[in-house]
Amino acid sequence: MRSRAEVRESGVSGMGGGARLGARLRVAGEWALRALVLALLVWSLALALSWGGKGAVERASTETLSEALVRWTTVAGPERVHVAFDHAPSLVERDWLAALVGAGTQVSWSGPSLLPTALSIEPRADPAGGAEVSVAAPAGAVVVLRDTVGELDSARVEAASGVRAYIPRPKVTLDAAVGGVVARAALADSLKLGRLLVLGAAGWETKFVIAALEERGWRVDAEVRVSPQTTVRQGSVTAIDTSRYSAVLVLDTTAAAHADRIARYVRSGGGLVLWSPAVDAPRLAALAPGRRRGEVMEDDGRPPSDSAPREALSIAPITGLVPDAVVLERRGEHVTLAARRLGAGRVVETGYVNTWRWRMAGGEDAPEQHRTWLAGLVSSVAYAGRVGLAVPPTNPAPLATLIDRLGPAVVAEEVEAGGGLDRAVLARWLFASLCLALLAEWASRRTRGAR
Amino acid sequence: MSRFVFATAEYASGDWESAPALPANLIDSVARYTSIEVAPAGVSVRLDSDELFNYPFVWLTGHLPVRFTEAERRNLKRYVERGGFMMVDDHNHDITGVFHQTATEEIERLFGKLEQVPNDHEIYRCFFTFENGPPHTNHELNGWGDDLLHPHLYAIFVGPSTGDRRRDRIGLLYSNKDYSSEWNFHPETKRTMQQDPTKFGVNLIVYALTR
Asked: Cβ–Cβ of A235/B164 closer than 8 Å?
């Protein structure tokens, strides 16, 4: 009986040259397969050691997140989790995920439908109260404002500037919903309003400005010049400072004597509303957004309409704008409202010189519209002390805080590829590759008669 | 800025134009004593027209019975509520006269009871000072009309009653003193007068422009 070695040698030696070359290649292939199997085994060992016995990426969606968080924290203890959001997570869920990160779990998230949204609510410096609301969201998005009682209003974002709104009677918190993102903000403080000081010559504009602001609830001091020797005073006009006045309103050049005090007041944080005729006084012009006054364009006597009341008013256009001036309103090519910062204070200048006609000759709602408009001018610059309020937890910019806590979003598919190959899938592929390589090597040996 | 324009109210009944020289005398006094920008001539404006609201100071006088139309009533109420100032003066200076009886009836029908203006009210001090309240007219002192010296004026008070403000702004001022006769002289006459009788008229206008 021949030994196994003899059979192998006789098999080879009994072949022709071509067959011998093929047999050698086959043997070399078998060695290559053995090497591949060995490499795969080493890789498997390395993976097994690095995985530490834990499982693959754990996944959750917005709907399943609350259950998944409990499981991940108490039972599963996964090394990697991925959450696919179609709504922004609640504060608890967000912070829970952040806690998982802190505990060593790799957390990734995706949410292509989540739109960046930010909400701000500030108390208005106005005795009538209310709050100014600003919402930043992508152009075209629909913003829905709601409070604890229900929906307040909705608006489409027309431009990059977002949406602004005035809420007369705000609740403690306000929500702005943009798609699946709900931003929540709260009034963090209330305002302590001072008085107003009105300076001007005797005239209808002065009279009706004072009347409108008093009707709005402001306490008004006034100096109204009647003649070079006579000034009608209301209240006690003493120091012009932020401890007494929230804003100073200057209607004309009669306030020039106070210009230095007004300048100090504004630079220390006070608010100034200037009627454009006041800039005829150089020392008042130095404070103004526009350094010159255009020729007065008289109105044609039409009653101001309810829809566009200021169109029917006389204007003295604001010209000679300083570089830091911001134009707030125009009529055609003429600037009618402009503003600037000056030191710590703010200045707004109006080119409307006879707004009293709006109140007297306008439509049914004209007096209220006039009061509201004037109060808006004042509140845009007014200085007001702030009193902090206790507020509930808020989330004024959900997407930004989510990124801050968990890092930027990943594309869901990336979790499957690259550094995120699913371990179960990888293990299956490894096992199949090993089996195939072993089978091929074994089959090759057996078919050539070797063991 | 808008100039002050002296406006006289035209109303459908009565003789609204009974003191034609008065506007010029008051305009002269305002220009003489103050730096208020004032139009050199007055206007007359229909009480039932939208134009009324372009003139926040209006003078109304007459001798005859006053019966406002519905449009006049509507406008007058809106005018005062929006901040306009109307001076109503009884050209008869007669509390039993037809103007007084009908005009006060119309006013009280629209606004409620006319209230007595205290003689220390701001209207007597806002420019010239009248320690004893409204200055008497020659017609009162000479015993014409009702032969009374009227010590007070009467008013409809308007304005907010919250904050620092009481409901203390005069929206409509009513007088039995016949300033319409007192100030309805030829302008040249003022040069011969020892005392200018229109000074209280300046106070009325200053008050209207500042309150």
From this structure: yes
Q: What is the CA radius of gyration of chain A?
A: 38
List the Cα angle B13/B18/B23 in 5-degree steps: 120
Test mutation, B2, B43, B203, chain A, max A CBs within 10 A? B2
Residue A277 and residue A281: Cα distance in Å, rounded? 8
**3-state secondary structure (DSSP) of residue B59:** strand
Q: Which amino acid, A283?
A: R
CB contact A244 to B (< 8 Å): no
Residue A206: pLDDT band (50, 70, 90) is very high
Please name the amino acid found at residue A321: L
The CATH class of A192-386 is alpha beta
* Nearest alpha carbon to residue A185 among A136, A239, A118, A124: A118
With a threshold of 0.90, tell me whether the complex ipTM lies above it: yes
CATH superfamily name and code, B7-210: Domain of unknown function DUF4159 (3.40.50.12140)
| CB pair distance less than 8 Å for A225 and B35 | yes
One-letter amino acid at A108 equals S
Name the pairing type of β-strands B115-116 and B154-158.
antiparallel
pLDDT per residue over B25-51, tens digit each?
A: 999 999 999 999 999 999 999 999 999
Predicted TM-score (pTM) of the model is 0.78
Cβ–Cβ under 8 Å, residues B6 and B27: yes
Nearest to B210 among A207, A252, A361 (CB): A207
Domain boundaries, chain A: 58-114+399-420, 118-188+389-396, 192-386
User: What is the spatial distance between Cα A111 and Cα A236, in angstroms, rounded to a whole number?
Assistant: 60
For chain B, what are the domain ranges?
7-210
Return the SS3 of A442.
helix
